[in-house]
């Protein structure tokens, strides 16, 4: 890391719809049991990640409930919890957010999710066209923010009506927990720059991210606001570039062409997300065009909706690619990898030192038998401890 480089705020992902070793295969899959999710949360808390993202959707465990459960087993970890306007009233979501912020002692971040599959949204009772959903969200968060910041709200809008709504107990964070948002459409950007604190993008090539950052900054400036920026990426980090690319190939080694075709058709036919279309356009479902930018690999997006790209390489290589995004204005990274428990360790142990981030044990000069040989004289029940350099 250069002397002037600012450390990146690095979050991880909680796979509340399940985890696994191979994409598009039932082999070595892991369900989203709370015990396993707790393992991941405790590991990333200890490893030095600043927070975790919990997604939303019909295939996911409910984000607020899961975050509340995990907060009891962690110390510093923040929880970026998905909130979808329209699935409940703004007053109810205000109570959820405020309670979770108090239960976790101020460790709540909120990720606004407006888009997605129209069919899934309809199942949640949201029957609005793409751009109209953002007009609805703007009214929703007008009431929600007033409740969090002032404790009461009365609003008579086209979509939202609230008469003397009240919030009995305020959040720990004042005036409210930070708001995050990701969306590539013009309507989404216009909505976000009016109220969010951090704008998120999926892992597109740096030139495309730079174009988006410029567009969002200009839109925010027209409203007299500034926003910060984050990026959502998968990571495949190994000690060498060759090992990392071999791991990428292994991740999709059990993925057949029919599964890819079905997934791509589903993304096109069941989503009106502009961001999803941009992700799919990077590779067009083709295995032979997966490195869409140096070390930016789109193999995950062959079958996974949403974030579909991974940075692949050695610690030095991946750190260099992240610095390119940082030069554009990216301050926050939300990472993930398959499986999420093991890959969290690889990212923390291999990549964090290159980014100027370190585990508490490293800062304290911790060493164990892999860094020094511990020789006990007098058997296993006592004696003098001698430490000699490991070979």
From TrEMBL:
Q: Which InterPro entries match?
A: Alkanesulphonate_mOase_FMN-dep, Luciferase-like_dom, Luciferase-like_sf, SsuD_RutA_monooxygenase
EC number(s) of the enzyme? 1.14.14.5
A GO molecular function assigned to this protein is: alkanesulfonate monooxygenase activity
Per the record's keyword annotation, is Flavoprotein included, yes or no? yes
**Is the keyword Flavoprotein assigned to this protein?**
yes
This enzyme catalyses: an alkanesulfonate + FMNH2 + O2 = an aldehyde + FMN + sulfite + H2O + 2 H(+)
Q: What does this protein do?
A: Catalyzes the desulfonation of aliphatic sulfonates.
**Cited HAMAP family:** Alkanesulf_monooxygen
- Protein name, please? Alkanesulfonate monooxygenase
């Amino acid at each position: 890391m250069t002397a002037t480089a600012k450390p990146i705020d690095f979050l991880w992902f909680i796979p509340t719809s399940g985890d696994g070793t191979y994409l598009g295969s039932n082999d070595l899959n892991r369900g989203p049991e709370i015990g396993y999710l707790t393992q991941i949360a405790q590991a990333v808390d200890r490893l030095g990640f600043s927070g975790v993202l919990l997604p939303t959707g019909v295939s996911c465990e409910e984000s607020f409930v899961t975050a509340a459960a995990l907060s009891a087993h962690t110390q510093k970890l923040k929880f970026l919890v998905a909130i979808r306007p329209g699935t409940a009233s703004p007053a109810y979501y205000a109570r959820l957010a405020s309670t979770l912020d108090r239960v976790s002692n101020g460790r709540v971040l909120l990720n606004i999710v407006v888009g997605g599959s129209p069919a899934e949204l309809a199942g949640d009772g949201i029957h609005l066209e793409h751009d109209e959903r953002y007009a609805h969200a703007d009214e929703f968060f007008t009431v929600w923010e007033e409740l969090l910041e002032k404790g009461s709200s009365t609003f008579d809008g086209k979509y939202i009506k609230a008469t003397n709504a009240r919030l009995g107990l305020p959040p720990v964070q004042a005036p409210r927990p930070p708001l995050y948002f990701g969306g590539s459409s013009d309507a989404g950007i216009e909505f976000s720059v009016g109220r969010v604190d951090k704008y998120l993008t999926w892992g597109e090539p740096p030139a495309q991210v730079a174009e988006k950052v410029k567009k969002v900054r200009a839109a925010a400036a027209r409203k007299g606001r500034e926003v910060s920026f984050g990026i959502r990426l998968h990571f495949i980090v190994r000690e060498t570039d060759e090992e990392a690319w071999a791991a990428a190939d292994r991740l999709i080694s059990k993925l057949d062409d029919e599964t890819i075709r079905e997934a791509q058709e589903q993304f096109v036919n069941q989503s009106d997300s502009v961001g999803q279309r941009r992700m799919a356009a990077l590779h067009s479902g083709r295995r032979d065009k997966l490195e869409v930018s140096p070390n930016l690999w789109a193999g995950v997006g062959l079958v996974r909706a949403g974030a579909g790209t991974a940075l692949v390489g050695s610690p030095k290589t991946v750190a260099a690619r992240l610095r390119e995004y940082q030069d554009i204005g990216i301050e926050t990274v939300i990472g993930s990898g398959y499986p999420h428990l093991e890959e969290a360790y690889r990212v923390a142990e291999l990549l964090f030192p290159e980014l100027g981030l370190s585990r508490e044990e490293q800062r304290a000069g911790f060493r164990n038998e892999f860094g020094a040989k511990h020789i006990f004289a007098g058997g296993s029940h006592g004696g003098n401890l001698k430490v000699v350099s490991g070979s």
